[in-house]
Specification:
By secondary structure, the chain is α+β, with helices and mostly antiparallel strands. The protein is built from six helices and two strands. The protein has one domain: 2-Layer Sandwich (rbstp2171), CATH 3.30.2220. A hairpin with a 2-residue loop joins strand 1 and strand 2. Helix 3 packs across helix 4. The C terminus is likely disordered.
């Protein structure tokens, strides 16, 4: 087995909880989940939204949410199309906070170059 396959077999992507108080109800805050962003995910986003990490747009944040948001059981919460249109109708602060929680571990490109 090659090193890449061995690394893939060892990969343990921990699911992150994303809390969205604005979408909650009487039982509490709404919670969604996502796995960490991978190089593959960023490649997909950057093909659609060049300079995603430098110039993040609302549309790119919505695409990120559609791509990564899952239920507690690991089922995708959103699909493209109508779900994307509905998410684009949300307040910008809600969408940006969800996206920030989803990729909070990614450093600013200039910071990453320093390390």
């Amino acid at each position: 087995m090659g090193l890449a396959k061995e690394l893939r077999n060892r990969r343990n992507l921990k699911v992150r909880e994303i809390v969205v108080p604005e979408w909650g109800d009487d039982s509490g805050d709404f919670k969604m989940y996502c796995k960490p962003l991978t190089c593959y995910d960023l490649n997909i986003i950057q093909k659609k939204h060049p300079n995603f990490l430098v110039n993040t747009t609302i549309a790119s944040m919505v695409d990120l949410i559609v791509m990564k948001a899952e239920s507690v059981d690991g089922e995708k919460l959103f699909t493209g199309g109508e779900d994307k249109v509905d998410l684009m109708g949300e307040e910008t602060n809600i969408i940006s906070e969800i996206a920030n929680q989803m990729f909070s571990e990614i450093q600013d490109p200039q910071e990453a170059e320093k390390n």
